[in-house]
């Protein structure tokens, strides 16, 4: 398994835009974004079609059984020896909604893209996105602190450490919202060994 690799700021934005059709409106400003990627290359060791269990090679010659749901429609196309690449992309973006009057809240979205007729190999892509909205209730420019009202629980005080963001704090208004968008994209591709 390869270690997590950090990608450029631009990749985080692109993954958010493409993963779940999250679009930044004119009144929304991106504050920060971070993305990571984890890649595992393995091969199929065994397949139990009746139980929908695929066993793949794990670290140090171990075997890892994976229970698949009935959503794995092309399982019958998978063969012992096929190569499997699993890629997990995670990104977190923080967006300021410059309109005043938003409310705290949480929204969730998920989806799946499967193999096509042109590519019948088992695999596909799945995404999950969670947006957490917090309302700005207090701004302290002297201490560089912003107080947020999250959807659940008590208010939270956030210390702004970045000098560039500290400078931009003077443009904040009580009643604006900060949205943190968490996006996970899982991609599985398979191919027969060459």
General shape: elongated
Structural class: mainly beta
Let me know the number of strands. Answer: 10
Q: Determine the number of helices (DSSP H or I, runs of at least 4 residues).
A: 2
**How far from one another are the termini?**
22 Å
Q: In percent, how much strand structure appears in the residues?
A: over 45%
Indicate the percent of residues in helices: under 10%
Major sheet attributes:
10 strands, antiparallel
Instruction: Flag low-confidence runs.
Output: 1-26
> What is the helix/strand order?
EHEEEEEEEEHE
What does this structure look like?
This is DUF5666 domain-containing protein. Residues 1-26 form the signal peptide. It comes from Pseudomonas vranovensis. Keywords: Signal. The chain is mainly beta and 194 residues long. It has a domain at 5-35 and 92-191. 9% of the residues lie in helices and 51% in strands. The chain has helices spanning 9-20, 163-168; strands at 5-6, 28-48, 53-57, 63-67, 83-97, 105-114, 124-140, 145-149, 156-159, 177-191. Strands 1, 2, 3, 4, 5, 6, 7, 8, 9 and 10 form a ten-stranded antiparallel β-sheet that branches. A hairpin with a 4-residue loop joins strand 2 (28-48) and strand 3. The longest helix has 12 residues, at 9-20. It is elongated. Mean pLDDT is 80; it is low at 1-26.
């Amino acid at each position: 398994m390869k270690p997590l690799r950090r990608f450029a700021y631009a990749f985080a934005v692109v993954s958010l835009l493409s993963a779940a059709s999250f679009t930044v409106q004119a009144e929304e400003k991106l504050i920060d974004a971070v993305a990571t990627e984890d890649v595992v290359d393995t091969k199929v060791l065994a397949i139990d079609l009746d139980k929908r269990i695929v066993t793949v090679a794990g670290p140090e010659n171990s075997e890892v059984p994976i229970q698949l749901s009935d959503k794995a429609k092309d399982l019958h196309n998978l063969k012992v020896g096929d190569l499997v690449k699993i890629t997990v992309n995670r990104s977190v973006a923080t967006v300021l909604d410059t309109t005043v009057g938003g409310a705290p809240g949480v929204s969730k979205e998920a989806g799946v893209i499967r193999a096509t007729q042109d590519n019948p190999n088992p695999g596909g892509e799945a995404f999950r996105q969670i947006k957490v909205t917090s309302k700005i209730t207090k701004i302290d420019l002297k201490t560089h602190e912003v107080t947020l009202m999250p959807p659940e629980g008590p208010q939270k005080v956030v210390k702004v450490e970045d000098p560039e963001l500290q400078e931009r704090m003077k443009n904040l208004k009580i009643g604006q919202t900060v949205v943190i968008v968490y996006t996970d994209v899982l991609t599985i591709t398979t191919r027969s060994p060459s």
